[in-house]
User: What shape does this take?
Amino acid sequence: IYYAQAQYEKAIKMNLRAQKYFKQSEDQWAQADSMRGLGNIYYMQARDKEASEIITEAQQLFQKIGNELGVAECLKRLGDISLMQDRYDEAIEMLSDAQKQFQTFGDQLQAAECLWSLGELYRKQKKYHEATEMILEAQKQSDEIGDKEGVADCLETLGYLHMDQVQYDEAADMFSNAQSQYQSIGRIVNVAWCYQHLGRTYRFQGQYEKAVEVFTEALELFKEFPGEKYRIGYTLLSFG
Assistant: This one.
């Protein structure tokens, strides 16, 4: 619950308490899964070193007990961390491997998430054609299984891709659609991010009144999330 609400410090405390009991119970799967969960929280906080260390440890434990799905999930997150650190070749290898494994297991949700991450990777490399292909395929797969959050993530990334290519009208459409999707599933912090992206788009177009309006909306929403101090600061700076 705390993780979904972006209350990461509370989520960490609960996770560490759970790990303590799992170790006492000698349930290695639960122990590995809680470690992977803690690594995901660190990842969301951009604590890459800590995330990488604990997820690698979880991966080894999953490997030990023969849980291949757990191994693939750890591989996916390690690929995401490599992407954040601009280690692109390493990230492509990990994410592609994880995507194939998820496809084999019939886990379309996580296979789509790998495609999304690969799309992000190609976007960072300015390979816009490859990035768009990956994101559209991820969006298609997410839509097929009714994953509204996955669809919203893809729409948001397509907005970034249009922004990168100075296609502001298309970017605004994508961010607006993503915002509506996030609103429908209660992902309020993501709604705030979309307002922020829309504000940047309107500012680049010289539509300053619209920009102020959506930046204000973003700021009001971010105030509900103590862990989003950077976003609050960035939004305030955007008014300058």
The chain has three domains: 1-66, 91-146, 147-240.
